[in-house]
Amino acid sequence: MCWPRAAGSWPQQLPRDPWGHPYGDELRGEGPVVWSLGADGRPGGEGTDSDLFDAQQK
To answer: How do residues 34-56 score in pLDDT, each as one tens digit?
Structure first.
């Protein structure tokens, strides 16, 4: 994982998304970005297959 390990503030492993797929994560700019690839587990898609990013991602 690419999460900083300062004072144990970040989990060492993310849980799986609601469809059982691993979340994606990386550091961008000033902090981590977390995403799910949706129900199909593949980039892109529509409806429940669309990718989901954390609320701070623009």
So the answer is: 899 999 999 999 999 999 998 66
